[in-house]
Design brief:
mainly alpha; two-stranded antiparallel ribbon; 2 strands
């Protein structure tokens, strides 16, 4: 997986290196505890998927400039803030196989650090008069919050449909990848039509990304790669696409058992729930949907000339659905 990501980064290696330097400066604070925590965050950085999209889109459409670096920074600030907040919400003590911020510094500080990172992203946009980006990122933060809250509401009622599921995953995951692609285009002065196409490309890619994440919950063999505990979605009563399809296709008797088992969940029932998902083709259905969204994203790229950047974007889209974490 690391090899694939390194291959994707080759055409933007110099830009990613410069971005990492600038991100350290942007995240800095005069408050000691903030500096300690941000230092910890920087030294356990993730895959940088969203900044990679910013730079690849920008380079495919124009010449990378100061605004592109700022765009990558503000997108990564939002992403990092939401991860910090997610760990508090999920009461998770691990993130990327390291202790989460809330595990070390407790919930109150973790929430405030998340708020600090969000405020830094908004300041970066306003200080540089990027009002086109500001509008997009404010809407994205709102969408992400709505997506998480809608999922929580539906996990209590267990009445989620595929339409609502698509709405949830667009808001909570795809919206930020869509914003990365759209803002990457705007950072090199792309016209509105092109920026809109890039947003659609990011939306399709982001939905495929989240379906892949949801599939991990049913794949025992991925336990040691993802860093995400197997069965956590079931434990938290999150009804994702494999289960939605299974409930739709199941006999009345099996449907009743599945819903009761999720409502009164315990670990002993997990394997039987997964057996039902396999029996009714839930995993195959979700995989087909994921591949369809991947193909829709690749179709948009067909509109642009061949080259190393476009090739890297194609590899990136395929990586999204082939990754093991």
């Amino acid at each position: 997986m690391k090899i694939v990501l390194e291959k994707i980064k080759i055409p933007i290696k110099k830009e990613i290196k410069e971005f990492e330097k600038q991100f350290i400066n942007v995240i800095k604070s005069n408050v000691t505890i903030i500096d300690q925590i941000t230092h910890y965050i920087i030294h356990r950085k993730g895959k940088l998927i969203r900044p990679i999209f910013v730079f690849l889109i920008a380079k495919m459409l124009g010449t990378i400039q100061k605004k592109t670096y700022h765009t990558a920074c503000l997108i990564e600030l939002i992403h990092t803030a939401t991860l910090v907040h997610d760990d508090v919400i999920d009461n998770s003590s691990l993130r990327r196989n390291s202790f989460s911020i809330n595990a070390i510094w407790k919930n109150k500080i973790a929430v405030l650090i998340g708020d600090y990172l969000l405020s830094k992203s908004l300041l970066l946009a306003t200080d540089n008069n990027y009002y086109d980006l500001l509008k997009i990122i404010c809407k994205t933060i709102k969408d992400m919050s709505e997506g998480e809250l809608l999922q929580m509401e539906k996990s209590k009622k267990l009445d989620i449909t595929e339409k609502i599921y698509n709405q949830i995953i667009y808001h909570k995951t795809a919206s930020l990848i869509a914003a990365s692609c759209e803002c990457g285009a705007l950072s090199v002065n792309a016209d509105e039509k092109t920026a809109s196409k890039m947003r659609k490309f990011g939306t399709f890619t982001g939905i495929a990304f989240q379906i892949k994440d949801d599939l991990f919950d049913y794949e025992e063999e991925n336990k040691n790669f993802t860093g995400k505990p197997i069965g956590i979605d079931l434990r938290e009563k999150k009804i994702t696409l494999p289960l939605i399809y299974t409930i739709r296709k199941a006999s009345k008797e099996d449907q009743k058992w599945i819903l009761n088992s999720i409502k009164n969940y315990d670990e002993k029932k997990r394997h039987k729930i997964i057996d039902y998902v396999k029996k009714y083709g839930g995993l195959e259905y979700a995989t087909q949907k994921m591949i369809k969204f991947r193909n829709d994203a690749l179709k948009i790229l067909e509109l642009y000339p061949e080259g190393t950047i476009k090739e890297a974007l194609k590899i990136m889209v395929n990586f999204i659905i082939e990754r093991n974490q």
